[in-house]
Amino acid sequence: MIESRMLIGGELVAAKSGEWIDSLNPATEEKIGRFPSAAKEDVDAAYVAAEAAQVKWAALSSGDRAHMLRNVAAGLRQRADEVLRVEVMDTGNTISKMKADVEHAAHAIEYFAGLATEIKGETVPASSDNLHITIREPYGVVGRIVPFNHPIKFAAHALAAPLMAGNSVIVKPPEQSSLSAGILAEICKQELPPGVVNIVTGYGRSAGDAIVRHSGIKRIAFTGSVPTGLAIQRSAAEIGVKCITLELGGKNPLIAYPDQDPEKIAEVAVQAMNFSWQGQSCGSASRLMLHESIYDAVMEKLLKRVASIKMGDPLDAGSQMGPLNSKAHYDRVCSMVQAGLDDGAKLLIGGKRPEGDAFKKGYWLQPTVFGNVTSEMRIAREEIFGPILSVFKWSDEAEAFRIANSTEYGLTASIWTNDIKTAMRAARTIKSGYIWINNNSAHYYGMPFGGFKNSGLGREEGSDELLSYTENKSIHIKL
Ligand code: NAD
Fold first, then answer.
1. CA atoms of 446 and 448, how far apart (whole Å)
2. Ligand 1 lined by 465 (C-beta under 6 Å)
3. What is each CA distance from 250 to 45, 90, 280, 406, 433, in whole angstroms?
4. Nearest-CA residue for atom 23 of ligand 1
5. H/E element, 365
6. Which residues of the chain have pLDDT under 70?
7. What's the DSSP call for residue 208?
8. Among 49, 256, 394, 401, which residue's beta carbon has the most beta carbons within 10 A?
9. Which pTM was predicted?
């Protein structure tokens, strides 16, 4: 049984109220630990500590800050096995997939540490009798709120850019899976000055909202769903003028042209849907758009591949798919299976709890594929964030583009054709922020990631993200 603590002002603490939230293993519904349920008073304490620490932190050289960040990354690597086990039991994601997340958490920190000297301004020839310069200054205390699908990866990433830019940070992990954040808290306590990083666990409506509404926190970055992103914008606007960036959901198209090999498309469609993360990935290509000339051949092969996905204990290295993350999420995803049926889509495979004793408890849903999907159906428009793939058939390109752009989302898209002109035409027409041509799913640090339309505001994973944690100040020196 794990009992994790928050990090506030360099101390590992419980919530002032003494309240806790239980962590359940989604594969078995067994309690595996608990973590503090923070409220406004805890966030207020975190703010006081963060504000007190920030000025000294910002006064360090960027090289010194980078050095300490690298020590946090090294601490994560040292405890990688422990983090991995906790994370697998707490999220239900398979151990083979989660391994990469733990490494990614350390890598994200090192990436931003490596950008230490990129926090730079400009000289501008705005007049001949002044030297005009801009400098980049930190906001002060930054709030970051992260979702449940990659808890350690997002929590670690959340620290890196704000800290490198000279801010102190308050991070709120997801209430479904907060145990790995307890380990991150211990590492940060060891490697960083007190108050520079504060980790506050709890529910969104209490701990998250208290961060958003804190009058001292002007810069907030949120990763999560569109409805929560909208709620955060509304709450923040009631308090003051705030700079908010949003990394939100997706309903991402994978468009396959007639020149493609059906076997290859079947393979990449299964990968791109992220069944191996139970579809719980913002970049999942949950809308597969096949040209009519390859539709039947792809579908035959795709259904065989989906049928062969091995569900099982997430701690088992051979398991290819685990359960959904929580009961509430499971119920929502299952209701979307029913929505697909109600709208007249054809259930081709899955849609049920898998059979067998191992799946009697827990939030298990088979990988599911619907055919005959049209763009008005709910399963075509709404992000499900579960293992449900909707397949469309298209005959002309204009129709494919219309379907691809027909949702409120615009996060990623994956385009498959050997013709570079066709590929670039599609890439420029599709309103998404991150586009793969003849590839899918991969993220490349240095390339800005973020959404068009309701998928978000701002860009992460590159120097844009680092600079987004600074304010630009203009200084004019009379010569
Ligand atoms: P969510 O919006 O329910 O919750 C995300 C976080 O917000 C949690 O920590 C939660 O406690 C907090 N929260 C909830 N209500 C709040 C409020 N009123 N004020 C402040 N904080 C609040 O999202 P989720 O279910 O945890 O995650 C799934 C969603 O995240 C999906 O939509 C997915 O696409 C999206 N996501 C986006 C990206 C991206 O990079 N664009 C990455 C991962 C996940």
1. 6
2. no
3. 35, 24, 11, 12, 11
4. 224
5. none
6. none
7. I
8. 256
9. 0.97
